[in-house]
Amino acid sequence: MAPISDIERQVYTDIYQTYSGKLYGVCLHYVNDRETAEDLLHDSFIVIFSSLDSLRDSSRLEAWMCSIVRNIACQYLKKAQRMTETSIEDIPKSGTRLPAYLEQQPHLTADMNKAETATQVEAMDLADLAA
After folding, report:
1. Residue with more model confidence, 104 or 37
2. Which of 13, 25, 69, 89 has its CA 20 to 30 A from that of 50?
3. Sequence ranges of the domains in the chain
């Protein structure tokens, strides 16, 4: 990456100082968590500064930056939603038959049985284990 000139550095500083508060507010609106909003703002400024030369109309700078922040926040929320889509209710209960595909994979079935046994042992108290 090529070093930036003093003029570019000043432009970046001015943009950050002028718009970071508002853009942070946009991030916070989407995620409602200060630390996550700060991370998203940081990610947004990386994208903004690396693609600043693609801005066609400088009078639309604020709207352009807001759309970048909004897109990054939405990407974060989609990723977070995908990570939480598998709920505890989706996990088979003990004693439930495994899906046919897993039953045909003996090494997976053995590992799952070991995990289930370990889970059952963890749930026992010392008196049960001693018996």
Report:
1. 37
2. 25
3. 6-84, 92-130
The overall longest dimension of the chain from CA atoms, in Å, is: 77
Per the CB < 8 A criterion, the answer to whether 73 and 40 are in contact is yes
Task: Please check whether the domain covering 6-84 is classified as CATH 3.40.50.720.
Answer: no
Quick one: pLDDT band at residue 111, thresholds 50, 70, 90? very low
- For every residue of the chain, DSSP letters joined together read -PPPPHHHHHHHHHHHHHHHHHHHHHHHHHH--HHHHHHHHHHHHHHHHHTGGG-S-GGGHHHHHHHHHHHHHHHHHHHHHHHHSS-GGGSPPTTPPPPHHHHT-HHHHHHHHHHHHHHHHHHS-HHHHH-
Copy the structure tokens of residue 9. Answer: 């550095």
**Among 80, 81, 82, 54, which residue's Cα sits nearest to residue 68?**
54
| pLDDT tens digits along 71-101 | 999 999 998 888 776 555 555 555 555 555 4
Is 5 a residue whose pLDDT tops 80? yes
